[in-house]
Specification:
This protein has 13 helices and no strands. By secondary structure, it is mainly alpha-helical. It has one domain. It starts with a helix and ends with a helix. This is Sugar phosphate transporter domain-containing protein. It is found in: Membrane. Keywords: Membrane, Transmembrane, Transmembrane helix.
């Protein structure tokens, strides 16, 4: 019996090794590696576009003083580029998408531009970085994905992001100087809410309902209908912006270049965003958004001479650590 047991114990590791070497096991490992690589590529693409878009929008809006008009031009450029694709397919679910997502998309884009006219950039960043916490709580309660973990580690990681950015911004602009005008507060809340709702709605339709619509078609729906909603807002609230944009393009050097560049990046970010949201949860998407903001802040410290004291650097590192911790949990 002892010899038989010893032979069996020797055989088991060999059997496991043989099974691990089977084509099926190698195929599963390869597929898993390819999936992780795709997520990494999608995340890197979206993060690069997001950072570039922030900087280009700042230049374009600063030169033109026409935030809504700039958004409309960017959306129309995206529609034109997407329409030229050979893979424009409107299948099952496109009507539901058209009713649910473009209004939220337009609201998110317009309110983000307008809010920056009434509050400081630091205040805007602090409030927007509450997004991961909001989406984490809502996803956990309403339609919890299998890959979403809601525990003290997840809450701690997302909390670290918000607290870290708050510490940095409070030190940078001094807490006593943060100004919440009534109008600015309204647009900030609207932007935070519409941003979370838009990401969660897209995630739900892409990953849960699995609409049969190609990426170029989704871009056309988001930006085409979004441009119509934004145009309606412009006509009602700020009709003078079209003249301001025309004047800037004609008389202010560099306005056209910055606007065209922002349109190109806007097209790329729409595609990258849809690609990424097929692969990750809405909360993970918001966490990556927080991470890109920290990169912009780091760029300001290194290249533009922004605040680099111990407290500021601690806040930046804390937020980066929160993003890394959440990615490890996922």
């Amino acid at each position: 019996m002892g010899e038989l047991r010893e032979k069996k114990e020797k055989y088991q590791p060999m059997q496991i090794a043989e099974e691990e070497g089977k084509p099926e096991s190698r195929f599963e490992a390869l597929r898993s590696a390819m999936g992780a690589s795709e997520i990494a590529m999608a995340a890197a693409s979206w993060a690069t576009c997001s950072i570039s878009m922030t900087l280009l929008n700042k230049v374009a809006v600063g030169r033109s003083h026409a935030p809504i008009a700039v958004v409309i031009v960017q959306m129309l450029a995206t529609v034109g580029m997407a329409a030229g694709s050979k893979n424009v397919h409107f299948g099952n679910g496109w009507r539901l998408w058209a009713l649910a997502v473009p209004p939220l998309f337009a609201l998110m884009m317009v309110t983000s531009m307008i809010a920056l006219q009434y509050v400081t950039v630091g205040t805007f960043v602090v409030v927007r970085n509450l997004g991961p916490i909001v989406t984490l709580l809502i996803e956990s309660v309403m339609h919890k994905p299998e890959t979403l973990t809601f525990d003290w580690r997840s809450a701690g990681a997302t909390g670290a992001i918000a607290v870290g950015v708050f510490i940095y911004e409070a030190k940078e602009i001094r807490f006593s100087e943060i100004r919440f005008s009534g109008v600015g507060l309204i647009f900030l809340i609207a932007n935070l809410g519409s941003s979370c709702a838009e990401r969660m709605m897209q995630r739900h339709l892409l990953a849960v309902r699995e609409v049969d619509v190609s990426k170029p078609a989704l871009m056309i729906l988001n930006n085409g209908l979004g441009a119509l909603f934004s145009l309606l807002v412009l006509i009602i609230a700020s009709p003078q912006e079209m003249h301001s944009l025309y004047h800037a393009l004609k008389f202010k050097r560099g306005t056209g270049i910055s606007l065209v560049a922002s349109c190109v990046v806007g097209c790329l970010i729409s595609y990258a965003g849809l690609w990424l949201q097929r692969l990750v949860t809405a909360t993970s998407f918001m966490v990556l958004g927080s991470f890109t903001k920290m990169i912009v802040i780091a760029y300001g410290i290194v290249m533009l001479g922004d605040s680099h004291g111990f407290v500021s650097v601690f806040g930046a590192v804390l937020s980066l650590a929160g993003s890394y911790a959440y990615s490890r949990i996922k």
